Amino acid sequence: GGLFGAGGRFKGGTDPIMEKFNESISFDKRMWSQDIRGSVAYAKAIGKVGIITDDEVKLLVDGLGKVAEEWKEGKFIIKKGDEDIHTANERRLTEIIGPTGGKLHTGRSRNDQVATDARLWTVEAERDVLKDMALLLTAAANYSKEHIDILMAGYTHLQPAQPIRFSHWLMSHITPLVRDAQRLQEMIPRANQCPLGSGALAGNAFGVDREFLAEELGFEGVTPNSLDSVCDRDFVVEFLMWHALMLTHISQFAEDVIINNLLKCIDIDDAYATGSSLMPQKKNPDALEILRGKAGIALGKAVGFTATLKGLPRAYNKDLQEDKILLFGAMDSVKDCLAIATGVIVTMKPNPEMLMKALSPEMLATDLADYLVRKGVPFRETHHISGACVRLSEEKKVSIDTLSLEELQAIDSRFEADVAKVWDYEVSVERKNSIGGTAKASVLKQIEDVLAYAKTL
Ligand code: ARG
């Protein structure tokens, strides 16, 4: 065992399989810089209360700087017995500066240490993800602006419903991602609280100034209860759940594009599609399928980790160690997914001809009802009248817009010659000009709002 496994209390060596089972260095080395920063702050904090001298603080801080250099240059050698990033850094520090290295951990536990490192890492990752979100939101909003004039069929229950703007449809997938970005912003202050100085569970026996530690490390505040501090992984759950919800939104987008691709309404760029090993004609929307697939897995992991937490006794338990595998994995997945989704959006090509073909005059049946509403007929009546027109067109096997004025008037005498103006998709779309509607001005407003928000990220 390493520093701790072979500590004073232990006589025998650790079973080699146990060492492999127990180690976390293989993944938590990714937090080397957070671990060094936490230790630098902690060295200063125990210096401040006189546990170590100013010279010792300097020795520790300089030594930690050297360890950091080794990591940065890829020269840090992980040795047998380096159980995790915390023991590895302390082992190397002590090799470099001698026994003073052994003073660093005074009053500290790996329990408050790992919680600190993981929170530092998470906050940085979340800020980084916000930048990626900003790129996607900006790219998608600009793309929507460029394609503002294209109309398409809107569906409910996958049944043709009403004409909408293509951009309105795309912005309908961007709007949830704006909420996701907002949610992420709201999560950061909760993660950004400093657990260092909580000790193993009971608190710090040397009176370290936890507010000083928080300030040194850029945290917004200190965690309020030492037992909770070492086992609170809400910030991990929040990120995993956030990840699952954000991917759920991207998955819905992916599904919509796949359907539109099938309808030949949207062409996916070759960069995000693949061929078939057998069928030469194939171009499969693999990127979108993988995005869709990742959403389910992400949810499973979020639920799985929550299950890990639910039965834990206070305070730290080793069950918590693998939180970082999930955290890092989610972070990598988020970055890949956002990059791919952004790429798919900016390179996809709407096919205006096929989009128009997918529109059919029956999708203006509501507009026909609205026409009579504007002449003072109650909507419940006009809905019925318009329904009768749909039925007549179906019986005659003709398109509803080709029914003659006489035929319409036979259904309801209040139809007049100006009813012909109903059969215009653009007019239909432009009538939806309230906030959030599909009229050009309403969609442009949505686009401008998203662009302005993305700039703040
Ligand atoms: N490697 C451990 C983890 O990632 C660090 C905390 C170890 N604490 C302990 N009491 N064994 O969770």
TrEMBL record:
The keyword Lyase applies. It holds the Pfam family ASL_C2. Keywords: Lyase. Residues 8-299 form the Fumarate lyase N-terminal domain. Residues 363-430 form the Argininosuccinate lyase C-terminal domain. Coiled coil: none annotated. GO terms for molecular function: argininosuccinate lyase activity. One of its GO terms (cellular component) is cytosol. GO terms for biological process: L-arginine biosynthetic process via ornithine. NCBIfam families: argH. Belongs to the lyase 1 family. Argininosuccinate lyase subfamily. This is Argininosuccinate lyase. The lineage of its organism: Eukaryota, Sar, Stramenopiles, Ochrophyta, Bacillariophyta.
